[in-house]
Amino acid sequence: MSRACLLLVVAAVCLAGREAAAFNYADALDKAILFFEAQRSGKLPPGQRVAWRADSGLSDGSADGVDLAGGYYDAGDNVKFGLPMAFTVTMLSWSVIEFGDMMPARRSSFLGGIFGGGGVAQLDNARAARAVGRRLPAQGGDGDAGHPRPEDMDTPRSVYKVTPQSPGSDVAGETAAALAAASIVFRVSDPSYSAKLLDAAQLVFDFADKYRGSYSDSLSSVVCPFYCSHSYHDELLWAASWLHLASPEKKDVYLSYIGSNGHALGAEQDDFTFSWDDKRVATKGFLQSRADGLQLYKAHTDNYICSLVPGANGFQSQYTPGGLLFKEGDSNMQYVTSTAFLLLTYAKYLSSSAATVSCGSTAVSPSTLISLAKKQVDYILGANPAGMSYMVGFGARYPRHVHHRGASMPSVRDHPARIGCDEGFRYLHSPEPDRNLLAGAVVGGPDAGDAFADGRDNYAQAEPSTYTNAPLVGALAFFAGAHKIFTP
Questions:
Q1: Where are the catalytic residues (predicted)?
Q2: Enclosing domain of residue 488
């Protein structure tokens, strides 16, 4: 983004910021990033700041003859689910691509802390796929395997794969998108690594496209009901979009793929949700703002934006009485953070092109989108009827009974003796507050009436996830950077 464009966008932020007291977005950003250190699997790196965690999952992949140690647990469990984790990597990369210049002091530590430190599961898995042939590890561990600390796991760490015979274009497509996006992040700082990531992204995309099918059909007994995929079409188009941006020498190849396959893959369908399971609206906004000849998708993107803006023609979203976007009761904050991120990226695009969103006869400006995104972020941080921050460790009042194995039990440093699978359930159901602070974790959040029950058994409201935090990193970087620029 040019300096002039940045100032236009930030000026809009300042106008929007008059509506409510600003939070310390830089502190919230630091905590949002720190959360990922608590989710690490494998050998912990030097400089690990979450001291109550220790090494775990060191033999992951050994039963299948590959080394899959490392990566991140997706939420409050001890499983490395491929589809949501790949989406997490894509969103973290997109956060750096769009708003990395607004957090320059944190960029190097962010890259080392998130993408290094044991490796991100999907990057390792994709390289492993190249080593073992035409198969891609899609999941490590079982979602129903008790309630132990990560460090105490002794249940089988099964590896579940997608293959030509048991395809998974959704998980493979998202993995390709993650690799392509990450290759852009490292293009300048580590060209060799970037090239390897891009090469792997192209290989995995070819695999996803050639052997079409959903991993929810191939691996239904283990991925469902945790992360069932509604379709693989959106992931193929999403991956092709990222490869178009990441592959200067082959950009026309992927643009041609999008043009030839877009209709069949749902590019012309209106959709109103962005999540680990559905990328259609994000893909269309991404494409029309970055790819020549695809401005036809602007109408679809505008319809999505209009659906979010109260009072606009086309408005159809639900908000709580306190102003929180509400999609559904199971981990609703994941939709809040992804929506806030999209609003900000689209506001950036509109500002750079001196454009607006057409909602019937009403023109919606970038500042309106920024204001709406800010309201959602501020609600998370404490500007809500309960006066509660839904980010653990931020502010004076936040959830104390997070649905998270490691946070709820004594750490291995305080309690070296093993805590068994069954014994772990005692901590799950305990009314005692968390033994360890899961700083930066954003929980599922309140219900449609702004009510929140702070209890570990209430996983729909009390469980955090990497894919909830990942888009929030970008949004917080935006607001932290805007505040810094306009603070004397």
A1: 403, 454, 463
A2: 1-34+295-399+438-488
pLDDT digits (tens, 9 = 90+) for 245-272: 999 999 999 999 999 998 889 888 878 9
- Residue 269's pLDDT is 80
Q: Has residue 229 been placed in a domain?
A: yes
Q: Answer whether residue 131 is part of any domain.
A: yes
Paired tokens of 419? 């805590």
> Which of 190, 268, 447, 454 is flagged as catalytic?
454
Answer whether residue 478 is part of any domain. Answer: yes
Same domain for 110 and 26: no
Q: What is the pLDDT of residues 176-228, one digit of tens each?
A: 999 999 999 999 988 998 999 999 999 999 999 999 999 999 988 888 988 99
362 and 375 housed in the same domain: yes
- Which of these three, 422, 453, 468, is where a domain ends? 422
If asked whether residues 1 and 80 sit together in one domain, one would say no
Residue-level pLDDT at 263: 87
201 in the same domain as 164: yes
In a shared domain, residues 324 and 305: yes
CA-closest candidate to residue 79, choices 153, 166, 173, 179:
153
Q: Which residues have a Cβ under 8 Å from the Cβ of 486 and sit 6 or more positions away?
A: 10, 14
Q: Does the annotation mark 268 as catalytic?
A: no
Per the CB < 8 A criterion, the answer to whether 296 and 306 are in contact is no
Q: Quick one: pLDDT at residue 30?
A: 94
How much of the chain, in percent, has pLDDT values that exceed 90?
64
- Beta-carbon contacts of 332 under 8 Å, excluding residues fewer than 6 positions away, are 324, 325, 326, 444, 445, 446
Sign of the CA dihedral running 332, 168, 212, 66: positive
Output the pTM of the full model.
Answer: 0.93
- Which has more confidence, 126 or 93? 93
Number of domains in the chain: 2
Distance CA 460, CA 451 (A): 13
240 with 328, same domain: the answer is no
The catalytic residue among 233, 300, 401, 403 is: 403
Catalytic residue (choose from 74, 124, 463, 483): 463
pLDDT at residue 484 tops 80: no
Q: CATH number of the domain that 23 lies in?
A: 1.50.10.10
Can 454 be counted among the known catalytic residues? yes
